[in-house]
Hints:
By secondary structure, this protein is mainly alpha-helical. The chain has one domain (about 1-100). The protein is built from six helices and three strands, in the order βααβαβααα. A three-stranded mixed beta sheet has the order 1-2-3. The radius of gyration is 14 Å and the shape is globular.
Amino acid sequence: MVKLRGHHLICLHFFVGEGYDMRFIENLKDVLSKAEIDAVEVVEGIDDVCKACPYNKGYCAYSEKAEKEIKEMDDFALKILSLKVGDKKFWSEIKIEVDRILELWKFYCKKCEWRRVCKMPLIRDF
């Protein structure tokens, strides 16, 4: 079972093959492949995406405020997806929900450093 934190439940739908390094990118591809055939469990903190991140120190060490900001994104994503930590859901069901949450893009994707490569044209145009 794939374990994903809140904002990754959304961000992974827009993955286009870029990331921090090849290890990270290959891990994202692997996580997505597994998610397509298995259920996803919602977790708090470090998840299957974070495991290959160069900023994973048992928490997000991307910047001084990263962990706090990511926790806020996780909480917001779970709220708009009507999910909570411990829930299990099929990736196909999550995809349907992601399509209806344009509100997230308005608030969080505007500042996302990956916005330039996102598949979602609305995000690139902010």
